[in-house]
Amino acid sequence: MTDTALHQPHTSSTAARFWALIPCAGAGARAGATGPKQYQALAGRPLVAHTLAAFAATPGLAGILVVVAPGDTTLEDQGLAESVHVADCGGASRAASVGAGLGVLHTLGAQPQDWVLVHDAARCLITPAQIQRLMAACADDAVGGLLAQPLADTLKVGTAGRVSATLERSDKWLAQTPQMFRLAPLQQALQASGPGVTDEASAIEAQGLQPLLVAPEGANFKVTYPDDFALAEAVLRARQAALAAPATPREAA
Question: Which parts pass through the membrane (predicted)?
C-alpha cells in the first residue's frame, strides 16, 4: 500500500468486518506478581479471562485473536469461546506482538479494509457496551480511534522530585484501549514506527493522521500496579453481585 492509499479516507464501512486483537505476551513486571499479571486470579478467574469474556459477549465481532508468548499454553484449558483464537507469536514488545497478530488475522480471513480493535489484556474491566460504543463511533470514520478519558486531575511537571510547572489540562486525554484502525493502514503504520511505539494510535499519528477520541463511560483502567488488583476485583465483584441480584417488582414489570 502506498502512502497515498494510507491517507485516503474510507467513505463506507459496508464490506468491513470487526476483529479484536489482544496482545497477551507481557511479563507484567510492574504488577509485582510472581508470574505474568494477565494470568493472576481475579474475582475467581485469570485476569485475562474477564477481558476475553467481554469481547466474546460483544455482537458484531468476526473473531478474537489472543497473542501469547512462544510456548505459552496457559489458555488451553480455560474453556475459551469458539470465537477466540490463540497464537503463540508474541514478541519482545507490544508493537511486535500486535504486528505478528495482524499477520495471523490475515490467515483467519481478515481483509485489508477490516477494522481491528487492539486491546490491553490487563484492561479487564472493559464491557461489551464500551466496545460497541467505540465500534459505532469509528465505523464510518476516515481514520479510526480509541477509547480515552478526559484528564480530570491537575497535571504537574516534576523535576528532581519537585513541581516545576503546571500544564493546561482541558485538552489532555488519557489513552485507553481498544484502539480501532483498519488492518492494512495499521500494519503499515506499525512497520514504519518500529518496536518502540507504545500504542497503535501513536503509530497512526506518526503517519499524519488524527484518531478519534471516544470516552468509555465507565471504568476501564489498566491493571498495572499491585494496588490495582484489589480495585479491579472490587469492581468485578460488584458487577457480579448486581447480575446475581433478584429483580425488584418494578424491574420485573
Answer: none
Distances in Å between the Cα of 18 and the Cα atoms of 7, 48, 66 are 20, 20, 15
Instruction: Report the relative pairing of strands 84-87 and 45-46 from DSSP bridges.
Output: unpaired
Phi, psi of 74 (to 5 degrees): -55, -40
Architecture of domain 15-147+172-252: Alpha-Beta Complex (3.90)
Give the model's pLDDT for residue 27.
Answer: 67
Q: Identify whether 226 is preceded by a cis peptide bond (ω within 30 of 0).
A: no
Phi, then psi, of 149 in degrees rounded to 5: -115, 125
Q: How far apart are CA 235 and CA 36, in angstroms?
A: 21
Q: Distance between CA 20 and CA 227 in Å, rounded?
A: 28
CB-CB contact of 138 with 161 (8 Å): no
